[in-house]
Amino acid sequence: MKRVHTVQDYFVLGGKSIRFIFARPFYHQDLVQQMEEIGVKSLGIVLLTGFFTGMVLALQSAVQLQRFGATIYIGSLVSGSMIRELGPVLAGLMVAGRVGSGIAAQLGSMRVTEQIDALNTLGTDPIKKLVTPRVLASLIMLPVLTIINDLVGIIGGNVIAKFLVGIPSALYWRTVWDQIISGGFSFGVIPNDFIQGLLKPFVFGGLIAVTGCFFGLGTTGGTEGVGLATTRTVVTSSILILVIDYFLTQLLLAVLVV
Fold first, then answer.
1. What was the pLDDT predicted at 5?
2. Which of 58, 113, 147, 176 has the fewest beta carbons under 10 Å from its own?
3. What percent of the chain has pLDDT over 90?
């Protein structure tokens, strides 16, 4: 029964944080600060992860495709993998490790030092003030980070394809574009690969922020509790990202693939 209530509280927190996005007052300064913290400061690790992931994908693809004389399709494999799956999932996992733990630590420290109780005393809703800006910033910035991750990953694949495999860059990028086109279009304009690649990080962003805030606000037991909250946030967010990614993929394939 306790676990049922915990799940219920989790969804209640998520629902309130989304609802408060459209309710006054708007904490614009907090939103901008969180966008910088979540997006700008995560750029380095996302760039590094995306670039080397693209390089590894191209390297492994080249080894397998050489058996069939089809190394020209490295660009298709790298772009399809990065845009549909690896880009969103890896960006989500990196942000969960860096940002999710940070959110839990910040709010957990505020909870054990009774700063959140002080906000209630002053008549300020802690969810509106602390949770909503973090959730909204994550919803905005994680898709942006994913786009950067995808692009850098494809560039990393281009480096391997050109300098180790000997495929001209023009041919590589042409196969990348052919892969995007082959996925089809929604409304005749938006590539289906882009829909899959950007809907997932949007969901992951909200998931990471709500999870971090949930465990942070529920912190008990002083500094030891803060450490426990950060650990639970990273583990729970990572597991949920992988699980939800599967079901989102199933849903999107059923809807988008004719």
1. 67
2. 113
3. 46
Of 127, 95, 171, 104, nearest in space to 30 by CA: 127
Could you read off the pLDDT of 95-124 as tens digits, one per residue? Answer: 999 999 999 999 999 888 888 888 878 877
User: Any residues with CB less than 8 A from the CB of 105 and at least 6 apart, and which?
Assistant: 216, 226, 229, 230
- Residue 119 CB partners (closer than 8 Å, separation 6+): 125, 126, 129, 130
For 226-254, write each residue's pLDDT tens digit: 989 999 999 999 999 999 999 999 998 88
Give pLDDT tens digits for 25-66: 888 888 899 999 998 999 999 999 999 999 999 999 888 888
SS (H, E, C) 56-97: HHHHHHHHHHHHHCCHHHHHHHHHHHHHHHHHHHHHHHHHHH
Q: How far apart are CA 113 and CA 117, in angstroms?
A: 9
- Nearest-angstrom CA–CA distance, 7 and 76: 41
Question: Which residues lie below 8 Å from residue 30, measured CB to CB, with a gap of 6+?
Answer: 129, 133
Q: Are strands 190-191 and 185-186 parallel, antiparallel or unpaired?
A: antiparallel
Q: Residue 27 in contact with residue 129, Cβ under 8 Å?
A: yes
- Give CA separation, 39 vs 13, 139, 180, 236, 257, in Å: 23, 10, 26, 21, 32
151: left (phi over 0), alpha (psi -120 to 50) or beta: alpha
Taking each helix axis from N to C terminus, what angle separates 132-160 and 74-81, rounded to the nearest 10 degrees? 170
Distance between CA atoms of residues 142 and 241, nearest Å: 13
CA Rg, the chain, in Å? 21
